[in-house]
Amino acid sequence: MTSLTALSLATTWTPAEEDVPPAYTLRLTNSGTTPVKDFKLFVSGPARIDPTAEIEGATLSSRISNHSEFGPPAGFVLQPGATWTITARGLSYPLRHWSDGANTAYVVLGDSTIVPVITTPTQAIGGNAKLLKGAARFPVPEPGKSPVPVSIVPWPKSVAVTGARLAPAGLDLQHLGEAATSAAAAFAALVEDLFPVEGLVRPAAEAGYPVRLIARQGLGAEAYELAFAADSVEVRAATHTGFLYGLITLGQILRGAAQHPGTFTFPTGGAIDDEPAMRWRGTHLDVARQFYSSAEVSRFLKILAWNKLNRFHWHLSDDEAWRVEIDAYPTLTSIGAWRGHGLPIPALLGSSGEPSGGYYTKAAVREIVALGESLGILTVPEIDVPGHCFAMLQAIPELRDPGEHGEYYSVQAFPNNCINPANEAIYPIIETIFDELIDLFPSKLFHIGADEVPLGAWSGSPLALAKLAQVGGEALAASHAKRLNQVTNHGGADHIEGTGAAVLQAEFLGRIQKFLASRGCVTGGWEEAAHGDLIDKSKSYLVGWRTVEVAAALAGQGYDMVVAPGQRYYLDMSNGPVWSEPGAGWAGWSGPEETYAFDPAQGWTDEQKKHLLGIQACIWSEPMTDRAIFDRLVFPRLSAIAEAGWTPHASKSWKRFSALVGQMPILYGHWAE
Ligand code: TNX
After folding, report:
1. Which atom of ligand 1 lies closest to the CA of 451?
2. Are strands 39-44 and 7-14 parallel, antiparallel or unpaired?
3. SS3 call for 129
4. Which of 92, 154, 472, 636 has a CA between 20 and 30 Å from the CA of residue 27?
5. How far apart are CA 637 and CA 591, in angstroms?
6. What's the rounded Cα separation, in Å, for the pair 70 and 39?
């Protein structure tokens, strides 16, 4: 009989009870036929095991962020059929949802063989509810029951349509002029990809319904009008994007009427006049924590366009990976784009022992940027500096102070993850990298991160402390030095204001922002970029992520603001408070209805509103370990946020939105069962 090594891991979370601290338990079972000895167990998944946690049954031999390595007691042998149990208590961040726990594990044997471990989703003790995945379905109302006759998301400024006819088979686009012609081509390609074989665009010979695209100067850049007649439709706009948006609305009306006759109609008279309430209707996608191939990103952009979202904030670097080709520094991708056992970046967030990851070549980036442009979407790259740079530092160690000693930790438990503002050698490196990127992104919008620099950042760097003494005084430098090696002292940048870390970061950001301005770029940053007030407000914008009040206050100081509060617009947060919902929980939870109801401009003064650029959905990818989780977390909340950007708050209606949103496409096609 051949011997077989087969291992499986079951994990459980026991919530706290009176006098009993919560416990995270990992059980490794040998389901093979040979004893397993001389081995280590490695697990990864969003949950982190703090160094301060008490571990029973094993030694936590190393950990980086959520990657943990456990060693069994000396001489331990896991016999066939036996289970080894490890319990961790005292985690500083409790598990709240099933996707928090370990979702990948592997064992490494003494001879370095990697054995994959079958890992089942973490169960909560006391909860037997079915674990949820896939987008929640929003059924289209029965015939006669829709609150509105036409199916459109986001809802237009004015809908005054009359009459009803059977849905045409498709649209025959008749266009003259550059903007109309390019928009017609972009629309045809869009629907061919999003809704293959429906034949939404088709010639008259195939019963295409006449749609005339008419240039109408004086309309806004994203505005359009639809005028319905008994036998045709006119789309009027002044720009490519205006025409495209008019066609998207028409395409949505047609699909609704075709697929749900009796519920929705195709008008024969009247008009739709439309333009967005807000200029910036963004979506951020974190491709560092999980990698999304260019095919996935391309389809995602098409879905954004179908929601009339117009900014793609592409989060290309973080602690866990660097995702874009840079000619001058090939290690950024040869090292920074891959995680795996024994690599400079370990298996994290559900990646396995085998190398996994990927990056976008420059050619792929150009294609995606061009696709976005054809769909009215500007792509904004983000390179997150000076914090969240673990991967970048593994690839280019020169970005540290060579004399740095000791350790500080980020809020996600990465050690020493910030490039060092006081090391002059970093500036030519950063500028070279940024120059290559500026060349790829014609939007000339460049987001530089600036979030979550740890409280103790650079506290063991002689260069940083000298710089701090120079700009902030000896006392500040001395107090900053004391933050070194305080393992639990990771902090988050929301409370670093005024500290040594904030002062050093501000110096850095001011300098980088000037550099970007010299290249004609507007600099974006997360709200912490305002600490120290050293960036030029007239050439920058900030994304506010804590609360609307913080965003409004920053707008009052003169910063152009994009509103993306974690509680409502972070699409990694779960849809509900229960264990069976996947997703994160640090900012709470938000179901589609809560996200929809939220008013991003509530409480803003008129003066502050002058600096309200718009809104943004943020898709952080820590919990997206499975594409069915992605679909559940992103849809339909993405459309709820799109409507907040497009439709004036007073015209929003959950009843209408929830009747229509079931028609919107999702990325992977995973629906909840
Ligand atoms: C905070 S808010 C982060 C990200 C995480 C996210 C998870 C902000 C700008 N940074 O690094 O992915 O929380 O929700």
Report:
1. 9
2. unpaired
3. coil
4. 92
5. 8
6. 9
How many whole angstroms separate alpha carbon 345 and alpha carbon 337? 9
Ligand 1 centroid, distance to 412 Cα (angstroms): 9
Is the model more confident about 449 or about 496? 449
Q: Which two tokens stand for residue 657?
A: 């939105």
Percent of the chain with pLDDT strictly greater than 70: 99
β-sheet bridge partners, residue 406: none
Confidence bin at 4 (pLDDT 50/70/90):
confident
Residue-wise pLDDT tens digits, 497-522: 889 999 999 999 999 999 999 999 99
Token output for 171 = 């649209």
Query: 391-443 pLDDT, tens per residue?
Result: 999 999 999 999 999 999 998 999 999 999 999 999 999 999 999 999 999 99
Residue length of the chain:
673
Compute the average pLDDT of residues 87-102: 92
* Residue 257 in contact with ligand 1 by CB distance below 6 A: no
**DSSP letter (8 states) at residue 100:** G
Contact predicate 232/209, CB 8 Å:
yes
Residue 526 CB less than 6 A away from ligand 1? yes
From the CA atom positions of the chain, what is the Rg in Å? 27
Question: What does the alpha-carbon distance between residue 657 and residue 673 come to, in Å, rounded to a whole number?
Answer: 22
CA dist 154 and 540 (Å) reads: 28
d(CA 443, CA 37): 56
Residue whose CA is at the smallest distance from ligand 1 atom 9: 451
Closest CA to 24 of 40, 2, 43, 6: 43
3-state secondary structure of 638: helix
Is the CB of 155 within 6 Å of ligand 1?
no
Q: How far is the CA of 269 from the centre of ligand 1 (A)?
A: 48
Locate the DSSP E strands across 333-377: 338-339, 356-357
Distance of CA 622 from the midpoint of ligand 1 (Å):
9
Query: Is the CB–ligand 1 distance for residue 414 below 6 Å?
Result: no
Atom from ligand 1 closest to the CA of residue 586: 14
Beta-carbon-side half-sphere exposure of residue 633 (alpha carbons within 13 Å)? 31
Pocket flag, ligand 1, residue 359 (CB < 6 Å)? no
Report the alpha-carbon distance of residue 246 to residue 29 in Å, rounded.
Answer: 58
